[in-house]
């Protein structure tokens, strides 16, 4: 409106405007307040404020002689604000006619403005053309290079400045530290820090804040803390920079302690500080979830901290800020309070893509895939265009979308896949760039839907395939059991000159271990000749020179690989070189000793854990109790039982079950009974352990008593229950009872008869010589029996002289176990007992070499 009034077509204004354009010299006149409207500089300012930059520059270019540098500077700032490079170049061309203007602050600011608007070459040309370069000129060009993303040239500029005999000041060091932070050049940053310290500039709060920020970006947390402590004075910005550094480095705990320290020092947090504290809460909750800790109380405390920050923000009016609310929604989502996240989302009068992403992410974090997809639809109805991050979250939502009330599981899986395909197609139509992050999320979604053809097609179509993408596809195939393909992909990864990281090695080691475990029935599976072991060792050697063993995740992956392959000595060597083994590392070794029948070493290892003051968890106690069961170490068992009771862990069914089983192994069923009676909530597993314990003592009457009591208190027997009670029948020779129980597994309880049930029945029938029933079960025996069942049945045939059945059993067994020498020895002895010399020679000719150490007959 003001501009319209000023440019009314009156004769005086028209004349004045003509004089501006034709070089009327008004700047040399002394003007009073009433004559201000006649000043062309006044009109330049008015035009700038109205956003009419082109007209303002027209006015400037028509002024002869030119206005003061102050007017040019004002106009440059307006052009810089709108990033109008064309008008900046016009100003540059105009003032270049008057060398007197290209000095001082105007020249310095022109250098910086040209660079900020993308004309770095013009800025450098102007800088080099300056008649004299001051510290301000040098700082301007350094700042220009930094803002244009060319901070790597900052060292050369700094050395050139020193060669020009120009001493840097505080602002120069601020610019230098910013450049080091952008380029993550910690070495240069430390050198410059030392120089600034010598000049006494590091106590300056502005320099110190920038220095802290630089160290934070370079992941040098201790150095940032030292700078903070060394500041002569600190302002709120100093605290926010330090808080931001803690959050950026994943130190959520330290960030919250620092925030509490701010409050104790009566420093009033602003919106940014409160946002960072919320991010710290979310970070801690995220770390807790990824480490799978038993931490409900910790989650509760994080929620309470977040609620307190929220309440403080309400009093200060921060919640009207859309970005603060986004951080608030994310925090509530991470700590598991989805209802409060929804409330924070609903109160927003305006929502942008950041808030939508925060809410969708919160639902994904809590496994609410259907809710996340519904929010995505609502977002589109409100005409908010999704970005790449939105698509990442929605792809993740498809992967976790498992439950639809009106669909069965198979249809639900197909529905998830169709939704994912539709999202993928929508992203392609929008022209969304499929970068590594989005591509990885898409691959993972297809992998969870088991759509492996889509996984292959997507992987091949990605233009950017970095290590994150490769790790995604490796993980997908190892989860689907395609372990051979995982190793082929790893080879392809190397051929494409992609450097594998810890996750790559860990995934491939998992594939190798799975290949070995798959061939476990084969006696050669865990020999050094197995391909899985050979490749795993090669991966170990490949990782070592890269320094990857510094990472704990790879170290633990190697431990799991070697222990699953039964190579305990190599697992121990890996454990010894771990710089700081965590509880997972200790538990892997402990489990390996138990699984490989080295229970004594397991207890010794646990004793070593205690001496090292390693805090153990439920898993540790479980393995120790299993070791006690094997070694009959009742004293250790009672100590662990006391620990379980004192920490209220006896309510954990698995621990209670293992403890009862251990007491059963010690023939201390009174203690087992006392523990069972003390359990607050009945559970079938501890009852199974009691039944098994009495079976082990040979007291089948008590086994039957507990079996009946289990049913009377309303518990449903499971497959393990019947394994224990059938074992009691087998040990006592109770065939009729065993047959009735065996029949009731399917008929009365709707359970599946498994291999263990059949093996027990075969053993019982064989020992009793009831071969008629064994012939009835022979179809199962040929298809599913394991080696121990075959050997047991051959032993029964030998005892009862049933040569015909023995031959049939042997023929079935060698189909699965052709290299197992005991089979050949046993069938040979059976024929020897029957006096069949020719058969003996025939069988002994086929006996594998490892049978040489076995005794015949």
TrEMBL record:
Pfam families: PPR (PF01535), PPR_2 (PF13041). It comes from the Eukaryota. GO terms for molecular function: RNA binding. The keyword Aminoacyl-tRNA synthetase does not apply. Keywords: Repeat. The keyword Repeat applies. One of its GO terms (biological process) is RNA modification. PPR repeats lie at residues 134-168, 235-269, 352-386, 466-500, 582-616. NCBIfam families: PPR. PANTHER family: PENTATRICOPEPTIDE REPEAT-CONTAINING PROTEIN (PTHR47926). This is Pentatricopeptide repeat-containing protein.
